[in-house]
Amino acid sequence: QTSVARTPEQNGVVERRNRTLVEAARTMLCAAKVPLFFWAEAIEAACFTQNRSLVIPRHEKTPYHIINDRKPSVKFFYIFGSICYIVRDGENLDKMKEKDDGT
Q1: How do residues 24-62 score in pLDDT, each as one tens digit?
Q2: Disulfide: which of 54, 71, 80, 86 matches 28 by Cβ 3.0-4.6 Å?
């Protein structure tokens, strides 16, 4: 069933999910003292975490487990806003450099 464009009241489940993600992202940004322009990363981290941690009581599984039929890996869980370092392994480092025009 579809809903009419720009009528959020017709899809309460999605609106609630979006509100939950925004509230989680806002909390993560505030707790980590991260600038607001990282809002997209905070939303992505909140969605990643919630899909792998919220248990649906009826199934006793996470949403990820239900969709992919396997338990999610939590080895990628880190505290949002923690210090990280970029590892350059030498692969594709010149990919975005300007090309020589051959003259």
Answers
A1: 999 999 999 989 999 999 999 999 888 888 677 777 888
A2: 80
82 φ, ψ (degrees, to nearest 5)? -75, 160
At 1, the pLDDT band (50, 70, 90 cuts) reads low
Q: Which residue has the tokens 């239900």?
A: 66
Residue whose entry in the numeric block shows the structure tokens 């959020």 = 8
* pLDDT 10s digits, 77-92: 888 888 877 777 666 6
Q: What single-letter amino acid sits at 22?
A: V
Burial state string for 18-36 with b = 16 or more CB within 10 A and e = fewer than 16: eeebeebbeebbeeeeeee
Query: Given the structure tokens 């487990």, which residue do they identify?
Result: 65
